[in-house]
Amino acid sequence: MPPTSTRPLRADAERTVRAILDAAERVLSENPNATLEQIAEAAGVARTTVHRRFANREELVRTMAVNAWRRIDAAVDAARPQTAPPMVALHQATANVIEIKYGTAYALDRVDETDPEIAELEANVLAKCDAALARAQADGIIAADANLVWVRRVYIALITETVHGNTELDGTSDPDTLASRVIDTLLGGVGPVRGR
Length: 196
Fold this sequence. Notes:
By secondary structure, the protein is mostly helical. The chain contains nine helices and no strands.
């Protein structure tokens, strides 16, 4: 749904917007210079429909980015970072976010971090991440003396590299497998397991 709208869209209009946003992600990922007409064709709608919903390409890309961050925020909430056992919450949030980032990489790579709505959504997600990491630290999963800001930065970097660099590894795109890889690397590093 376009973020500038104050009224909820009807179900059919919402489906149309969703189709346009999904098509835009696919088309622009393959051809960043694609036209709104090409996006409309891929979405199965008239060019005028795209223009009626989005005044220009910049508004479309902004809406894609806002929508991606809303989905990430909801995906983190779905992992119950405040109430689920910390390892369960971390794994589920990681898998959820990886899955969304795979489908929204174009939009997320073009986020205008000065946009107030995007900045607010990102801040909400990071606050939930910090809370989950603090719970993991309190449970002894993360070292008591670890700097959680650094831990979060490494965690996000691992997720980003997983999404952008995964084709160079074993080719798996299974979010659960990739989430396990991220969490194992975050918590255990890449050195040999001690005590073996």
